[in-house]
Amino acid sequence: MSDLSGKIALVTGSVQGIGLAIAKSFADAGASIALHGLADETQIAAAKSELEQTGAGEVRFFDADLRDVAAIDAMMDEIEAWGGADIVVNNAGIQKTASLADVEPALWDAILSVNLSAAFHVMRRAMPGMADKGFGRVINIASVHGLVASIDKAPYVSAKFGLVGLSKVAALEYANKGSKKSGGVTVNCICPGWTETVLIEPQVAARAELFGGDRDAGVADLLKEKQPSQRTSDPSEIGALALWLCSPIAHNVTGTSIPVDGGWTSQ
Ligand code: NAD
């Protein structure tokens, strides 16, 4: 469907979870991967070798802390010298639940900087090069919480709604860059519901406690509350959608926020 050979894809937070699954689907299509995240040597080496074995052109690792604008700029300088990112997936994210009154200012700042401001700084640096090439894809991993709210998630919901808004502005500013032949420059959000990664484990564990520590019962209870399909998503399903968005046929799909949420946001 998509041949990404010769393309460079930066996927933030790609050493694990949804980011790694997206990087794998791009590697399978022959892209070179700017692997990124905060991890130890073992995890980095494992992710790098998994991507190389899947078929990536080249894999280079970046460890920019996304709370640090200077570190983001240094990473983008290096990627520019490599050839510039043809595809950017702003995937890295953190989340912690607390009621609004209990959110410490430092937690608010951290969630906003990783989940929203970092995406802005990466796009600010990557998108002019995409316009010059006439091809570019920005995929921002928002959340159902970019479309609807839940209690105890004030910073996360604020950041994700912000990411949806940022993506629409960028989509409009770059809509007429490139051509049908070159593929154009598009910006979209993917909005997952419950997806099986370590990010949701604290919430799963808290719910499992109500059922004597039974994880499956905890997950079922979380799904019953919000996700009508009663099924979690696998990260590879998000990867498959991201790959489709990179294909030439998706040149006119821009400014959208696509839920992968089993009906959560249809309610
Ligand atoms: P995860 O915790 O497995 O991965 C998060 C990644 O972000 C890691 O690779 C980590 O290294 C990176 N990261 C965190 N803080 C960073 C920092 N300061 N600097 C650089 N990198 C940093 O989480 P995941 O579930 O794979 O989530 C990926 C994205 O999907 C997030 O944006 C999350 O909000 C979103 N999402 C996840 C779910 C879900 O159910 N798992 C649902 C909706 C949205």
TrEMBL record:
Read off the SUPFAM superfamilies from this record.
NAD(P)-binding Rossmann-fold domains
What's any GO biological process attached to this entry? monocarboxylic acid metabolic process
Question: Which PROSITE patterns does the record cross-reference, listed alphabetically?
Answer: ADH_SHORT
For this chain, the family text in UniProt reads: Belongs to the short-chain dehydrogenases/reductases (SDR) family.
Q: What is this protein called?
A: 3-hydroxybutyrate dehydrogenase
